[in-house]
Amino acid sequence: PTIFVIEPDDLIEQLKKHVDEFNRSNENNIYLHELKEYSEIKRDPKLFGTSIFYYRSDNLSDEQKDKIIDFKNYDNDGKWYIFLDEAHKGDKEDSKRQHIYSIMSRNGFLFNSSATFIDPRDIVTCAYEFNLSSFINAGYGKHLSILKQEIRVFKNDKEDYNKEEKQKIVLKSLILLTYVKKFYEEITRIQADLYHKPLLLTLVNSVNIKDADLKLFFRELEKVAVGEIDLEILKVAIEELWEELRKEPPCMFEKDQKIKIEESTLKSITKEEILKYVFNSTVHGEIEIIIRQSNNQELAFKLKTSDTPFALIKIGNISEWLKSELVGYEFQERYEGESYFENLNKEESDISILMGSRSFYEGWDSNRPNVINFINIGTDKSAKKFILQSIGRGVRIEPIRNKRKRILQLYNAKEIDQEVFDAIKNKVLPIETLFIFGTNRKALETVVQELEQERKKDGENQLTLFENDKIKKKDLLVPIYKQSKVPILERKEQIKFEISSEDLELLSKLGEFITDDRVFLMRYETEPKKIKFLRGSLKERSNFNIKEKTIKNVDLLVQRFFNYLNLAPKDFQGLKELDEEIKHFKEIRVYLKNIYEIQNKIEKVKNSTKFMKEVEEQYGKIPLEEYLKKVKSISEEEEFESGGQRIKIKYVPNHYYVPLILSEDEKIKYINHIIKVPSEVKFISDLENYLKRENNKFEEFDWWFFSKLDESLDEIYIPYYNPNINKMSRFYPDFIFWLKRRNDYYILFVDPKGTEHSSAYRKIDWYKKLFEENGKEKVFEYNEFNVKIKLLMRPEDPTKVLSEYDKYWFDNIENMLNSLI
Fold this sequence. Notes:
By secondary structure, the chain is of the alpha/beta class. The longest helix has 28 residues, at 163-190. It comes from Petrotoga miotherma DSM 10691.
């Protein structure tokens, strides 16, 4: 016999619905029975159909009372086929249930399933791997994007956040929801029954304590509802979202799938559209509470200016909220119909925001989430499972009823009309993406990436490249840094805050208007020394870096300035010999089933110099025709093509690893971590052409090497202050050169991609702070070497470069080397 061991009751109801659906379209029916009925069914089995048993996992025990049953009374000599959801089998170390399931299936089989295994033993013994990573890559789930912007405002730490910052953080999730809903609206105009109504899901750690995470989020949501929204804050929130998303970040698990946001649509979002798409209203209004007397786990919210609820809270018990958080609100009591939560997946549900904790994610099945906020969830074992399970439910998708794959996969399977596909194909990316905000982005990524580590991807192969034999016994040095203990506020050297002229004038007027420092202390909850620093800085315009981007919000400006003073930059610590800082050449993946041809060509190019030496030694010893044939067979360059996309495999003698792989097709999909950016490809071509020249400048060095750097994997960078996020960031140049000339040693960073000027100046300024003094490179001693560290960039338009930055730009290889000698 077969049994499904399930918890809680709503999962059992879900199983019954699936069985009913199956029975309606099949002659050989399935009959579901509680395990308690086993003896009766065994005595009098049905002549037709199949009997399947089920029981709640938490009611299986080794004793008998009420609903709890003693498994020994249903042992059946251990000949059970048990279907078990891993989430309900108990903890690995101490669970009685673990042993019960093993005993009941000792002569049968235990089918243990989960998309969120975190125990290594479960992963190893899993019969078939189809976790979240595989699920998404197979086209069954939405694309997954974990945003860099964190919901740190809800973290209980010492960071200062004013009310505008809190509002901005909540606004970002509402903006993204509005953005997705606008595309959903366009799609449904083409065909009304496609996809799902987008939903914002906010999952929190605390619900009922004072200043619980859920309460803080709700309060900020209410401010938007009633119109306490600053248009400049809205504008800044949109700009910060765009700043990240315009870079087209890759999706989790899908390195070749990038998030592409339509700039005009995002930037045109207004507060009126947020009201329309999120709050189901055309004007602001106070929030009204809707409760059902028969349900003490959910609260619905609507604006008094609308007839339609826009949000729902689903928690263990709403009584504490009614007694504390919601005193003074107007209430509506409803008695009819299903609960709003049970109604969420139905077409008539207009709920835009679902808020809650862990009370509802078990067994909840929905296609609707497009934005998830994780607030203070944590990273312990239970939190990891919660994160993975809630994301696993959020990524589900159903573009067409009962067709649960992304639209492209449905089109390839010929399950959607060509005309409809052509009409919507450029509109579906937002609704086929799950955007995630978290209090700690790195923790979220770590949890999700653990799945990737266990994943065995079909058609994914790793290429083997090799460290250049010539680098052996060569000291390849790289800079290392240490976190400063001294914040900007207390540093002797001046580090300028970036601000527009308009904002600087606004800040200056505020300083003149508020003459009493106690007002600053009360309004911004800051320290006297920060107020003194601000007043001192405002005396001279030269204390600031003037930029174009304007915020026009004085409270936000002050808060950003005070947060800026808290930053502790990284300082240069010293030099070290290269170890594992360059590792991208060990992580090159090819997404083809057979890579024999590529690997063979790599080996051939890699060994070209060795083969040439061997052949040269045979000169005069073998027939000339055979000698020429062998010489001709040796190649320092090979090509490979798949799907019309070509790569070149080159032996570049002075590169850190060999061979070098390049492609002139920047959008190449079947291989990653190679040189494919046009500016980088051109730089390599220029370098190769220059090396062919007689008496080139490289010949003036005792030895030299260089390497491509990959910002996603390598650990060689220059730290700098990024005003766009008001934090320290890392600048990864595209290439690093090592050049030795007698006792002089040069580390040269080269970035040939034509960086936008203001961004480049910022990076150069921080390079200068670390590696220059009085306009000249510092000299660092390392063993017998006198080491200088240099940075050069290639501008798109040299005529637009400010004169003070002239020496940091180059336009050809000789010019690059002239800057050193």
